[in-house]
Design a protein that fits this description.
It is built from 15 helices and no strands. By secondary structure, it is an all-alpha fold. The protein has one domain: ADP-ribosylation/Crystallin J1 (ADP-ribosylglycohydrolase fold, Orthogonal Bundle). Helix 1 runs antiparallel to helix 13 and helix 12 runs antiparallel to helix 13. The longest helix has 18 residues.
Length: about 260
């Protein structure tokens, strides 16, 4: 899940200053964590403590206000009830990567991904986006090849993953939907050569950069198994200790190692 947080921090600068190239500084003065990181950690917290996802998202969201939450989510945070709002936005996919690391079968991953989504994003596309992302993480973590991941996700969810980034990039625009974000983020991972390259390719699409990179790099962590040490350090310096504590607990519980890699 830490990989997803790296993508969020790197992509945060380019969400509103979009670029169409892989050549850019990974970190700068404006690099910061957004709602993608907050809610990814909330998902991990809920899994660790067997807590309800709605409660976790509200607790973390209210504790870290002003982090770029969507308008509907902000209204949901303020409500006394927890009823979902039928969203198909990419928020369900950006926060789901811990499921792919914590659960050990396809059926369990799909069921848990639906649970994370439906507390807010109960539209079929919102659930689908979360399930596709979590399944891609799980398949990557358990040693499937990129071609196996491509075929499995395309067959189950109907996403066109045979497109090329060079063909997508020129016409791609900011898109907050699952259906307009998840396939492109998965393709960025599929075309990548390593963890950093997955982030660069996702950001280079010039869309919802933090979320594209969050999704792509969550899968990339699971597939490549390590994150360069300097990238880990730069990201950790931008995160509150209480979020890092959840990451540490999650990594220990599920035996996830990536630090100290070249």
């Amino acid at each position: 899940m830490f990989g997803a947080m790296v993508g969020d921090v790197v992509g945060s600068v380019y969400e509103w200053d979009r670029i169409k190239t892989v050549e850019f500084p990974l970190f700068g003065p404006g690099s910061e964590f957004t709602d993608d990181t907050v809610l990814t950690v909330a998902t991990a917290h809920a899994i660790l403590h067997r807590a309800g996802y709605a409660r976790a998202y509200k607790d973390f969201g209210l504790h870290y206000p002003g982090r770029g939450y969507g308008g509907s989510f902000v209204h949901w945070l303020a409500r006394k009830d927890d009823a979902p709002y039928n969203s198909w936005g990419n928020g369900s996919a950006m926060r789901v990567s811990p499921v792919g690391f914590a659960f050990d079968s396809v059926d369990a991953v799909l069921a848990e991904a639906q649970r994370t989504a439906e507390v807010t994003h109960n539209h079929p596309e919102g659930i689908k986006g979360a399930q596709a992302t979590a399944l891609a993480v799980y398949l990557a973590r358990t040693g499937r090849s990129k071609e196996e991941i491509r075929k499995a996700i395309a067959a189950r969810f109907g996403y066109d993953l045979n497109r090329r980034l060079d063909d997508i990039r020129p016409h791609y625009q900011f898109d907050e939907s699952c259906q307009g974000t998840v396939p492109e983020a998965i393709i960025a991972f599929l075309e990548s050569t390593d963890f950093e390259d997955a982030i660069r390719k996702a950001v280079s699409l010039g869309g919802d950069s933090d979320t594209l990179a969050c999704i792509a790099s969550g899968i990339a962590q699971a597939f490549y198994k390590h994150i360069p040490a300097q990238i880990v350090t730069e990201t950790e310096q931008r995160l509150p200790q209480e979020l890092l504590a959840v990451v540490s607990e999650f990594n220990q519980r599920y035996n996830i190692q990536y630090q100290g890699a070249p």
